[in-house]
From TrEMBL:
Pfam families: VCA0040-like
UniProt KW Transmembrane keyword: yes
Keyword list, A-Z: Membrane, Transmembrane, Transmembrane helix
Record's protein name: DUF368 domain-containing protein
Species this chain originates from: Micromonospora craterilacus
């Protein structure tokens, strides 16, 4: 009983860490889920929920009942998902409250920190591709990087975001949860919706948040299965494209830039920004190392267990 309670508390803390990560550009919630060992169960549960919604929409109106939808709901790892959700909300709100004054008062220093976070997070999809890289994968990385560099150089919108833009951006950003190394909040940052979303969270703008939540539901329904399929059937190419998109998007986090996103030479606060940049790299690098150690331990334990079974036989 105490072990089960401790495990649930651990999932709540993991959820809080994922919530904080989703608010910070550069740290992927998917990466945190990987590091803490809940990634596969979260993704599997998301797939079951999408299936349940699809079966309910097709079966219930035809009088076929909830049998197939209920079966999918029972397959979800609720013992993991519910504690994670309980922890994610306060983690997200606390991070949002902390970040908004930093973004407003110290934009260059904040971008310097985020630049370090994102640059180091590229290690995740790159390392997941494995070795050796094929020419077509290198080409895909370069094309994705160039495209992302061009897109993130477009002037950021300063007007009140259109609801349709918010809807689409939320649908795309939520998919970052299933892609370790890709930050949903960073995607929002590149299209100019990061600060409006943070402000809406802090000011409890329920109209904006309702549109954003609707976009998240649409994104999960439409894209999760597709992304799962891509990672299963075209894993290396998908990860190569993700790596290139991250590298190209670093343009938007260069600390010294104009309001129109024109890059400028380094100016004031170089020392402070450099320290924050290195700090950001160190944080994500530590997470990557922790993940690799966990995977190595799991592989070693599996090998030892297999050996013991073979000895008994």
């Amino acid at each position: 009983m105490f072990m089960a309670l401790g495990e649930r508390i651990g999932h709540v803390l993991r959820g809080a860490a994922i919530g904080v990560a989703e608010a910070v550009p550069g740290i992927s919630g998917g990466t945190i889920a990987l590091v803490t060992g809940v990634y596969e169960r979260v993704i599997a549960s998301a797939g079951h929920l999408v299936n349940a919604a699809r079966y309910a929409a097709s079966d219930v109106p035809r009088g076929r009942g909830w049998t197939r939808a209920g079966h999918q709901l029972r397959q979800a790892h609720w013992d993991v998902v519910i504690p994670l959700l309980i922890g994610m909300l306060p983690g997200l709100l606390i991070a949002a409250k902390t970040l908004e004054p930093l973004l407003t008062g110290y934009p260059e220093q904040t971008r310097g920190l985020f630049l370090g976070l994102v640059l180091a997070s590229v290690l995740v999809p790159v390392s997941m591709v494995g070795k050796p890289w094929r020419r077509v994968e290198i080409l895909a990385l370069v094309v994705a990087a160039v495209a992302a560099f061009a897109l993130t150089g477009l002037p950021q919108a300063t007007l009140t975001p259109h609801p349709l833009v918010v809807l689409v951006a939320a649908a795309v950003a939520v998919c970052a949860l299933v892609m370790p190394g890709v930050s949903g909040s960073f995607l929002l940052l590149t299209v100019g919706l990061y600060e409006p979303t943070i402000t809406a969270l802090n000011e409890r703008d329920f109209g904006y948040l309702a549109i954003f939540a609707t976009g998240m539901v649409i994104g999960l329904s439409l894209f999760v299965k597709l992304l799962q399929w891509l990672l299963e059937q075209h894993r290396r190419m998908t990860l190569a494209v993700m790596s290139g998109a991250l590298l190209g998007s670093l343009r938007s986090l260069w600390p010294w830039q104009s309001d129109d996103r024109d890059l400028q030479a380094p100016g004031d606060n170089i020392l402070t920004i450099a320290v924050l940049f290195l700090l950001g790299m160190a944080v994500v690098t530590a997470m990557v190392i922790a993940e690799r150690r966990r995977l190595n331990r799991a592989a070693r334990d599996l090998t030892e267990e297999t050996y013991e079974i073979s000895q008994v036989r």
